[in-house]
């Protein structure tokens, strides 16, 4: 990704794979697009799990915001990318095995981009499945200055992923309150 002077960058990152980075990056980009914000998408994940393709040079030049989907690894290149980040979004699923990788990622983000807005997105949330211990983790993340958002585990999420579209596009009446509105508005909080 080239050095930028005026573009805002939202980077979706976690060293752990399978936590929904591509899904969250897509939802942020779709929400920005629906709101008329020109955005460019960067897919560094390489697994083909997004509904967006990496933007061409013309789209990148016209963009107000870059949305970046990263692989499940923290490399030197990812650390360099984080130095250019305005909003860091760290997805996690509500299972104990994701916590250590997520906290490692949070440490890297705090070191690489201390002035960036920082958001943890708990993906596939269901209050019945979540243990009290996980809620204690979320409380600890808030005390570190991270905003914590929740994306519900819902049939609309599965349908959206299958269709390669936004949750807001397939959720019908829930459209205005869809989860992508939540993290897109948080991402614009720069």
UniProtKB/TrEMBL annotation:
<keyword id="KW-0547">Nucleotide-binding</keyword>
<feature type="region of interest" description="Disordered">
    <location>
        <begin position="171"/>
        <end position="190"/>
    </location>
</feature>
<dbReference type="Pfam" id="PF10609">
    <property type="entry name" value="ParA"/>
</dbReference>
<dbReference type="InterPro" id="IPR050678">
    <property type="entry name" value="DNA_Partitioning_ATPase"/>
</dbReference>
<dbReference type="InterPro" id="IPR033756">
    <property type="entry name" value="YlxH/NBP35"/>
</dbReference>
<feature type="compositionally biased region" description="Polar residues">
    <location>
        <begin position="179"/>
        <end position="190"/>
    </location>
</feature>
<protein>
    <submittedName>
        <fullName>ParA family protein</fullName>
    </submittedName>
</protein>
<dbReference type="GO" id="GO:0005524">
    <property type="term" value="F:ATP binding"/>
</dbReference>
<keyword id="KW-0067">ATP-binding</keyword>
<dbReference type="InterPro" id="IPR027417">
    <property type="entry name" value="P-loop_NTPase"/>
</dbReference>
């Amino acid at each position: 990704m080239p050095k930028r002077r005026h573009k805002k960058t939202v980077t979706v990152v976690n060293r752990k794979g399978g936590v929904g980075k591509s899904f969250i990056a897509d939802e942020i980009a779709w929400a920005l697009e629906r709101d008329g914000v020109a955005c460019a998408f960067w897919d560094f994940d390489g697994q083909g799990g997004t509904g967006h393709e990496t933007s061409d040079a013309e789209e990148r030049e016209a963009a107000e915001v870059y949305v970046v989907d990263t692989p499940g690894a923290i490399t030197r290149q990812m650390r360099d990318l984080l130095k250019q980040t305005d909003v860091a979004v760290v997805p996690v699923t509500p299972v104990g095995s994701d916590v250590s990788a997520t906290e490692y990622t949070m440490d890297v983000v705090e070191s690489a981009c201390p002035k960036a807005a920082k958001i943890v997105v708990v993906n596939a949330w269901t209050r019945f499945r979540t243990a009290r211990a996980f809620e204690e983790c979320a409380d600890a993340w808030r005390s570190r200055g991270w905003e914590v958002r929740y994306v519900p585990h819902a049939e609309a999420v599965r349908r959206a992923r299958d269709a390669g579209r936004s949750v807001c596009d397939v959720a019908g009446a829930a459209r205005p309150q869809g989860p992508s509105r939540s993290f897109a508005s948080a991402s614009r909080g720069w």
